[in-house]
Design brief:
Layout (H helix, E strand, L loop, with lengths): L2 H11 L4 E2 H8 L3 H17 L4 E6 L2 E6 L17 H13 L2 E2 H8 L2 H11 L3 E6 L2 E6 L1 H7 L5 H15 L12
Helix pairs in contact: 1-3, 2-3, 4-6, 4-8, 5-6
Amino acid sequence: MDVKCAVEAALFSSAGNLRIADIAAKTGISEEEVRYAIMDLRRDYDSRGSAITIAKFGSEYRMMLRSEYADFTGEFSKADMSGGTMRTLSTIAYNQPVLQSELFKVLGSRTYDDVRELMERDFVSGRKKGQTLELTTTKRFKEYFGITGSGKDAIRTWIDAQARNSPKSEAPREDEE
């Protein structure tokens, strides 16, 4: 068995992040070999300019698409979140901490259903603040979307970059009007 291929298969098939110890325990490969295989895989993907990367989140790893190639996936994959729910999530992420009552004023009554879904998916957490909830994004949100860095500034930078790279956000050129 090729150790590097086994580790690559584990990372590819996992829906979430994996620790080296988890990969070792489930594959029977030593932690040291897993560690070296991950380093080799990261180097391989980087050196060939692959759209795939192996990102590190603390002591966990995840195979994912590089953010600059995210625009190409929309035509091939189904969205697992409605546009309205995604809009609510991005509003929370960009303005966090934000009160659910303020979101309601801006986004309307669907806010409550969206927030419930986002909390169930562990993208958002809420803390009681008077009669409403104060909402912030979670570690899972950052991991799912591949946001590196810490704090809300990193999230805002990522959201701004996604908006700039979105075909819908581009203004038409003069010759296209």
